[in-house]
Amino acid sequence: MSAALNISIAQAKGPRLYRRRDTGIWIIRDTVRGDRSTGTRDRREAERALALHLARSQRGRVT
Q: Does residue 46 contact residue 33 with C-beta atoms inside 8 Å?
């Protein structure tokens, strides 16, 4: 008798914020489009930059 294998496939996390320890600058981590600096140390400004990044990346996608 063979047991069924439970194999999980890793999925991309999607764009997210990452704070660099050396500079304190927030980076948008995006495995598809590459990392991009937000240019700010302020979390709220970084969140706005991420929202804009997500909106721009959704443009042109057909669902």
A: no
Distance, CA of 17 to CA of 7 (rounded, Å): 29
Residues 6 or more apart in contact with residue 43 via CB below 8 angstroms:
17, 26
**Residues 27 and 49: beta-carbon distance below 8 Å:** no
Domain parsing of the chain, residue ranges = 16-57
The 10s digit of each residue's pLDDT in 30-62 is: 988 899 999 999 999 999 999 999 999 887 665
Ramachandran category for residue 8: left, alpha or beta (phi over 0 → left; psi -120 to 50 → alpha): beta
The answer to whether 28 and 38 have CB atoms below 8 angstroms apart is yes
Question: Model-level pTM?
Answer: 0.74
